[in-house]
Amino acid sequence: MTSASAKAESIVAGAKGRPAATRKRRPEEVRARVLTAALHAFATVGFEGASTRAIAADAQVSLSLLLYHFQTKDDLWKAVVVDLAERYSISGLDAIVAPDATSPKDRLKAMIRGIVNMSAEVPELHRLMTLEAHQPSKRLTWMCENFIGKDFEYMSGLISEAQKQGAVRRVDPGRLRFAILGMAAIPFSVSAEYQHLTKRNPFSKIEIEQTIELINALIFAEPD
């Protein structure tokens, strides 16, 4: 057997000896690294300022490998938004954080807690939305039609239900939805400014709890 043949057999044998999950997981890990790097780029410099080459470098993959998974920057941007929507949709969040809550008030309280925790976990989400939502665009229309519109109707409807019970202040539900999201997200999306001015870390457990308490005090007619 030639040395080349022996080397080939050794490689094949090594591959067979590896767990199947490890071999299958690698493309998923590459995709996850690219999505993480892309989210950071789109949330920091916006769609126009981001480059696939820089994203590939940040993800520590080749540009050709990135383009194998996402053929264009637009495809990559949409994949980032879909990934965020699947993990952090308001309607999905309601089912996770309040599976046993029955009243609209309790569901809304649990949802507010979930939104604050989500905003602390992924501050890039609000930063990306701020960059995308400040002017009309095809990307914003696509997000609203596929994801944001549904969440807007869902959360506004829940606020309206809680208002009918007298639990939430009587203001426009849609406007209140924007107020809740802003209060929940801004301490984390502008964390450097927040920490510089308040001398407090917005990501600390006590600050997260105080953010939740503040929103509840302002939103609910009789906060607990």
TrEMBL record:
This is TetR family transcriptional regulator. One of its GO terms (molecular function) is DNA-binding transcription factor activity. The keyword Transcription regulation applies. Residues 51-70 bind DNA. Residues 1-27 are annotated as: Disordered. Keywords: DNA-binding, Transcription, Transcription regulation. Gene3D superfamilies: Tetracycline Repressor, domain 2. It comes from the Bacteria. InterPro entries: Homeodomain-like_sf (IPR009057), HTH-type_TetR-like_transc_reg (IPR050109), HTH_TetR (IPR001647), Tet_transcr_reg_TetR-rel_C_sf (IPR036271). Residues 28-88 form the HTH tetR-type domain. The keyword tRNA processing does not apply. It comes from Sphingobium indicum.
